[in-house]
Amino acid sequence: xxxxxxxxxxxxxxxxxxxxxxxxxxxxxxxxxxxxxxxxxxxxxxxxxxxxxxxxxxxxxxxxxxxxxxxxxxxxxxxxxxxxxxxxxxxxxxxxxxxxxxxxxxxxxxxxxxxxxxxxxxxxxxxxxxxxxxxxxxxxxxxxxxxxxxxxxxxxxxxxxxxxxxxxxxxxxxxxxxxxxxxxxxxxxxxxxxxxxxxxxxxx
Amino acid sequence: xxxxxxxxxxxxxxxxxxxxxxxxxxxxxxxxxxxxxxxxxxxxxxxxxxxxxxxxxxxxxxxxxxxxxxxxxxxxxxxxxxxxxxxxxxxxxxxxxxxxxxxxxxxxxxxxxxxxxxxxxxxxxxxxxxxxxxxxxxxxxxxxxxxxxxxxxxxxxxxxxxxxxxxxxxxxxxxxxxxxxxxxxxxxxxxxxxxxxxxxxxxxxxxxxxxxxxxxxxxxxxxxxxx
Amino acid sequence: xxxxxxxxxxxxxxxxxxxxxxxxxxxxxxxxxxxxxxxxxxxxxxxxxxxxxxxxxxxxxxxxxxxxxxxxxxxxxxxxxxxxxxxxxxxxxxxxxxxxxxxxxxxxxxxxxxxxxxxxxxxxxxxxxxxxxxxxxxxxxxxxxxxxxxxxxxxxxxxxxxxxxxxxxxxxxxxxxxxxxxxxxxxxxxxxxxxxxxxxxxxxxxxxxxxxxxxxxxxx
Lengths: 204, 227, 220
Prior knowledge:
Chain A is an alpha/beta fold. Chain A has helices at 41-48, 92-102, 108-118, 134-146, 164-180, 190-195, and strands at 2-12, 15-25, 29-34, 56-63, 66-68, 77-80, 152-156, 182-186, 198-201. Chain A has six helices and nine strands; from the N terminus they run βββαβββαααβαβαβ. Chain A has a five-stranded parallel beta sheet, sandwiched between helices. Chain A has a four-stranded antiparallel beta sheet with strand order 2-1-4-5, covered by helices on one side. Classes of the chains: A alpha/beta, B mainly alpha, C mainly alpha.
């Protein structure tokens, strides 16, 4: 899997957020996007995940040498972000089941069990997400992100709402992702930055 | 492209099922739409009182109640996704066409549920007698497809804007007006008709309207959804 | 060069149309002085339709290219369309009052013009409800295309439901033209004049848009 971004520029109501962002990301890489609050970290992540389009510039995705069209790219990406929520009225299992089915995950049920267990949510599967604590919600978001074995994993603020134990689990997972595939995170934590192969600094 | 469209259908069904479960847990849209219909119907019935309105007026009134009730519920399906920040979640798991079709199916079912309650009540309370009932039901079914189609795409638009409630009716009305006019006209025919052919022009318009609006919506939806 | 001459030429042309409408063209039988409304009402209605079409075309272009200028163009076309739509409604109402007795009576044509007014109003309401520029552009483009495809249904269904008193537009079903040569000359000149007037106005608006965008770019 490869992402290539050329000359990205984003404006919001004519106000420039960032410009001239060029990236080439291949497998086994971890990229950290950093910058002060409001510098557009989240926006850049959302652009790379094809959730919003850039004002100018172009992104191409390639898998095994063949280009993947924008309509298909969602099958390869996962995102954990404070701005991305799961369905609060549904139970954790319902959430994972529907979203997993839509993402064409195979052996879905066993994967749900395995990941819920790993993130310490075993036994809470059939509770509505709105009854979860914020830390549990964050862990559930990781479960959702990982259930499809994404080629590209985007993580916005990896640590938010997590306790030490949660952070450790997350780091194990991120390590695995980085070992084979692509990991892109938006963060300002020094610890996280140490972890990255490359740091992209965007300054307003 | 072939397998793609089949996949969209399957995905649409999952989205529909998800929305259905969500709806059963909260009953927000269903309550809103049915209560609105009942309240409006009561208001109309109450204010007309013992004076019997003629059939022409009753036909028009029926569609007006149907239109405004649907305006109270059809937008919920998209507004909810925006308000709970789950729109991005959906974008990450499926394609826009599937989302539109799933939501369309849900809104269509919502309208059918509304009609199951509204029609008997209206017939009973308003002393409304339709001679050709099958024609009336077909008009209602085809009309609902168009109403759901137009309502769903406008709902997607207003979910991205502010001041949603008022905007939904304002934007829907001109777009849905051809459907309302043909629906009223077809219902007037059904009141006195003996055969389907008498309303063939209206049925054609209603069908064509549904097909055109839904096709255009599928083409345009990604521009709204990915904004 | 053309830009300098055009407004001047247009001014003279429209003056001639006005003079022609009031002094040159004979009155139609049975309509009396009312005939003269025709030379202004039909062209404004025509320009409304033209502007509506232009707006839809620019909307399609915006969605295809995502270039913000097309959104401004579409907005300009709709603003002009709205103005002409109001003019068509007013001139139509005058006609209706004089010949049918009331300013408004839900004649199919009045209904159609009213629906166009509603569509424009809804379009502007939508625009004012969205702040973010590209979002506003995409949403209003989709809406104007959606409205554009539903309008033909009115043309088909409205006359079936409401009977019309409106005179047949230009050519009646039998293919006859109810105008003598002089009337026709003034009428067609007016139609051409108004069309060019619209093109001239929208060109000015489009140039303004380009200047506005250029200024914005320089600010950045």
